[in-house]
Amino acid sequence: MGVDGSAALTPEPVDSEAVRKAEAARAKAEHDQEFAAFAEGSYHTVERILRATCWDREVVQDALNEAYLHGRVQWLKIRTYTEPIGWVIITARNKIRKELHRRQREAAVAPEDLPPAPHIDIADAWEAQETLRTWLHHLPSRQAEVFQMSREGFSNQEIARFLGLAENSVRSYKQAAKKRLRELAEEAGYRDSDGRRRQGGSRGPQ
User: Fold this and answer.
1) Burial of 51 (0-12, 13-18, 19+ CB in 10 A)
2) Fewer CB atoms inside 10 Å of the end CB: C or N, the chain?
3) Which CA distances in Å does 76 have to 84, 90, 187?
């Protein structure tokens, strides 16, 4: 030790590797928490959109789980997107299509060959939701998908971007879906608040 004791004041060398690992661990924890909040906040919205075009809840949930698992791995990239939920919708939708095509090849039965939908009286919010979902399956898949995304609050511009469509096409799909849903409601005997049979098509989309 030096006469003036300076050796005792010399700082320990900084372990740069340990610092780097600590920073990486902190960043990972933050991203894990961020992704968990995103998944919790978006899961049911995406599920409702996907179920508008796919009857099989198990297929939808499997596709969602795979999409979110993939999303967690790619989160550093996905988190920079303007609308990360759009990536999840597209990824899960592609997985559903692959699964339905696989089942179609194995069973030699088209996935759209579904049993006739039962006639349900609209009694409460839950039954109304289930009735709407049943009616959506009578629509072409693109119309149902666009309509459900619109109900979830996505703008025409966002829907067009997520689905790779022109905005005019989105508006056309939405109008066609509303028209057909009004027809289905009339066929099912649904009446408005005044007790009159609901009419469709005469006044355009509401």
Assistant:
1) buried
2) C
3) 11, 18, 49
Which one, of 71, 67, 95, 96, lies nearest residue 81 by Cα? 71
- Which of these, 120, 124, 150, lies nearest to 135 by C-alpha position? 120
The three-state DSSP-derived secondary structure of 45-78 is HHHHHHHCCCCCHHHHHHHHHHHHHHHHHCHHHH
DSSP 203: S
Question: Over the stretch 128-162, which tens digit does the pLDDT of each residue have?
Answer: 667 777 888 888 889 989 998 998 889 999 999 98
Q: Comparing C-alpha atoms, which of 60, 43, 42 is closest to residue 51? A: 60
Q: Nearest-CA neighbor of 142 among 167, 109, 165?
A: 165
Question: 35 near 75, Cβ under 8 Å?
Answer: yes
CA–CA distance, 199 with 1 (Å, rounded to integer): 98
pTM above 0.70, yes or no: no
Q: What is the pLDDT of residue 37?
A: 95
22 secondary structure, DSSP code: H
Give tens-digit pLDDT for 83-99.
999 999 999 999 998 88
Instruction: Specify the pLDDT at position 13.
Output: 63
Largest CA distance in the chain: 104
User: Which SS3 state, helix, strand or coil, does residue 29 take?
Assistant: helix
Q: How far is CA 164 from the centre of its chain?
A: 15
Cβ-contact 143, 180 below 8 angstroms: yes
Contact between 124 and 117 (Cβ < 8 Å): no
